[in-house]
Target: NADP-dependent oxidoreductase domain-containing protein
Amino acid sequence: MDKASGNAIRLSRESTVRLRSGAAMPIIGYGVYQARGDDCKNGVKAALQSGYRQIDSAQAYHNETLVGAGVANSGVPRSQVFITSKFMPGHTVPTEDEVFDHLVKSPRRFTPETPRPPEGHLDLLLIHAPRPNEEARAVHWKALARAQKEGWARDIGVSNFGVKHLGALPEPLPAVNQIELHPWCQQRDIVQYCQDKGIVVQAYCPIVRADPKRLGDPVAVKIAQKHGKEVPQVLIRWSLQKGYVPLPKSVTPERIQSNLDVFDFELDAEDMAALDSLDEGAKGACSWNPVDNP
Model:
C-alpha cells in the first residue's frame, strides 16, 4: 500500500495489504460492533453488495452467527470475504486447551453447516485485549498459534495491545494489531512499533462513532468542504493514507455506501498535517482503549 501523497489516489476498494501468511487483506473493512438481529444480517449483506470484502466481528459482539447469515444472503461467495473474529480474555490465567476450546467455536458459528476448512475458517483471529497479565497473554497467544498451525485461522494477531504487550509476546510476531485510531487518538508510539515490526495496523472507531463534537470540528469540516465530501469520508481517507486498515461501522445502507466512497479523492499534505495536529493522546479516545493495561 503506497502512502506517498502522489500515489495515494491509486488506492481503490480492491486494494489489499499482504499479511504474514501471504494472504491479501482488503484495505477497508466493515465493523459490526453492537450490531444485532436483522440490523447485523442486513448490514453485512448491504456492505458486501456495496463492495466491502472484509467483515470485522468478535466473540464478545455475540453476532458471529448473524454475520455468517449476512454473508450467506449477500450472494458473495465466502471465499471472496475476509472474516475476522476476536477472542476476549477473562480475568484469570487459563490453560492453552481452555483458550483453544473457546477459539474453535468461532468458525463454526460463521459457517455452522461446513465447520472445517476451507469454508469453516477464519481469515484473521485476534486476542481482543491484553488482559489480565503477561502470563495469560502468552497462553492466549500459544492457543492462537495452534489454531493457525491447524489451518483454520489463516493469520493471527492482537487488538488493543500497547508496545510493552507486543514486545513480550512469544513468537510468531502478530500479523495485525487492531487499535482505536483517528485524528484525535493517534497512538503514535504503538503505530511506529508496529510499522517497524511489519505488523499491519487496523483502525477501529475511524469515524469516532459519529460523535457530533468530532464530526463538527472546524478543521475536519473545512477539509471536507474543500473536497466536496463528508467528514466521516475524510477521516476514513486519512486512515487509508496513513497506511492503516480502517473498520467503519454503520447499519444504515446509505452510510455503509458512503463510508466506502473514499477512493475518488486524495488528501494533500496540508490536509494531512492539519488532521495530524488534532491529536489529543489517550484522552482523545472515544471507546474502551486498554493499551495501558499492566
